[in-house]
User: Fold this.
Amino acid sequence: MSPTVYFNGAFVAKDEVRISPDDRGFLFSDGVYEVIRSYEGRLFELTLHLARLEQGLCAMGIAGIRVDSLADVFRRLLTDNGLTTGTATIYLQITRGVAPRTHAFPDPPVPPTVYVEAKRLLPRADPAVGVSVITVPDTRWTRCDIKTVGLLANCMANQRAREAGAIEAVLVRDGVALEATASSVFAVVRDEVRTAPKSNYILPSITREVVLRLCRTAGIAHRETPVFLDELPQASELFLASTTLEVMPIVQVDGWQVAGGRPGPVTRRLVELFQAETARLTGPENVLSKRS
Assistant:
C-alpha cells in the first residue's frame, strides 16, 4: 500500500501526489525543508525545528505558512502510517509554489507547495564502532545557514564519500572543517569539544545545539571555534552529529585512523548522554504535547 502523505492541505496516498512542472522547487530549488526524528511516536526537539523552519521561510521570503499548525500534521502521519513505535523521520518540504518560469519571485505571490511524509528510520551505523569520512573542498553557496532544498554540492560530495567507502564528506573552506554534507562535525582537542561557530557557512543544526547543551549540563569543556583541517590529525577524537546519525564517532579520515580507530571516551560519554535524552523523551511520564 502507498503510504499516507500530506500535500497542500490534504492527506493522500503518496502515489496520488502530482507536482507541477512549473513548481519553483522543481525549476529552481526554490524552497526549504526540515527533517525531524521521532522516538516511539514522540517528536524530538520539535520547537527548535519549527523555529529554524520559520527562520528559513523568512530568509527566503516565502509567506503564507502557519508553522505551528504543522505539528498536528506530523503526528497524524506518524499515526496513520503505523510509526508510533520505534524510530521514524518526518520530511517536510515547502517551495515558493507554482508560477510561470521567471527568476524573479511571482508577483503577486502564489500559494506555497507543502509536502510532508513520514518514514521508518533504520540504523545507518553503530556508535560502538564508528564511521569513516573523507574531506572535500566546500563548493556550496554562501548561505548554508538556510536549510534550502538546493543540495547538489552536498550530494556530489556525499557521493564521493560513498565511492571512497566512507559515510560522510567533511566540507573544508579556507582550511576550516566546517561541517559534513548532512552532519555537524566536532573535534575533541585536549579534552575540549570544539565545533565551528555559527555563520552563514554552516547550517544551525538542531543536533549540534543538543550536543552543546549536553556538554554544558554535564560539565564537558566545549567551545565554538574554527576547527582547521591541519588540526584534525592532532585531535584525540572526532565525531558527527545529525538527526539521523545522532552522535556518531569518526574513526577514520581520508584513510588515516583517529586515535587508534576506536571511539574515544568523550564521544562515548556524549553518545550515552544523547541516548539518555531520547530515553527521557519516550518515558511513560512524557506525552507528545509536552515536547512540542
Notes: Residues 285-292 have pLDDT under 50 and may be disordered.
